[in-house]
C-alpha cells in the first residue's frame, strides 16, 4: 500500500522537484525530493538533512488522516498541503464558502421579514437580497484579507517581496477558511444555539487562518494573530459602513 501511494505521486513529485518547491514538514527547510525511487518497486522516504527526520511522512498517509490532522491545526499537515502537494481548489472553495455565508445571512433576513405574498415582485426582491448578501460577504472577506496583507507588509516587508509569496499566502488563507463549510450543518440543524455555533465556527476559522500564516511565512505565534486582529478591524469597519448606509448585513 505504501509503494502504491508513493508511486501514484510520481509525476507530481518530478514536476515539483524541478521547481524546488518541497519543504520539510518538521523544520520547514527546503528539500530536493520527498522520496527516492530505487526502481523495481523499492522506494524510500527522504530524510531531511537539517532535522534528520522524514521530509514528509504524510505522503504515505490516507487523505482522511491528513484532513484530521489539518482540522487539529497541526503545522506538519499544513506544510504538507501547502508545499508538498498541488491543490488548486482554493478559488472554488472560497466561492462556495461565500455562498454558504450569503445563504445563512439571507435566511436570517427572511426570518426577520416574513411575507407570504406570492407576488413575483416579492420573489425577485428576495432573490436580489441573496445577491446583495453575497456581495457584502465578498467585500468583508476581501477587507479581512487586505487587512492581513497590509499588516504583514508593514511589519515585515521582506516576507512579501515577490508575487509568488503573496499568491502562496492568499492560497493558504483561502484554504484555511474551509471551516466556513460548517455553516451548512448549522443551517440544516437549526436550533436555539445557532448563534453560539456560528461563534465557534468563526473562532475555528480564525485559528486556522493564524496557523496558515504561521506555516507559510515561518513566523512565531504572535505576529499572525496581530495581522488577523487588524484584518478583523478593517472587516468590521466595512460592516459599520454598510450599516450607516442603511443596509441590513
UniProtKB/TrEMBL annotation:
Entry keyword set: Endoplasmic reticulum, Lipid metabolism, Lipid transport, Membrane, Transmembrane, Transmembrane helix, Transport
Residues that span the membrane, as ranges: 133-155, 167-189, 223-242
Main location: endoplasmic reticulum
Heme as UniProt keyword: no
Entry annotated with the keyword Membrane: yes
Cleaved signal peptide residues: none
Entry GO CC: cortical endoplasmic reticulum; endoplasmic reticulum membrane; Golgi apparatus
Membrane association type: Multi-pass membrane protein
Annotated localization: Endoplasmic reticulum membrane
GO process annotations (BP): intracellular sterol transport; regulation of plasma membrane sterol distribution; sphingolipid metabolic process; sterol metabolic process
Entry function: Mediator of sterol homeostasis involved in sterol uptake, trafficking and distribution into membranes.
Similarity comment: Belongs to the ARV1 family.
Protein name per the record: Protein ARV
Organismal lineage: Eukaryota, Metazoa, Chordata, Craniata, Vertebrata
Gene that produces this protein: Arv1
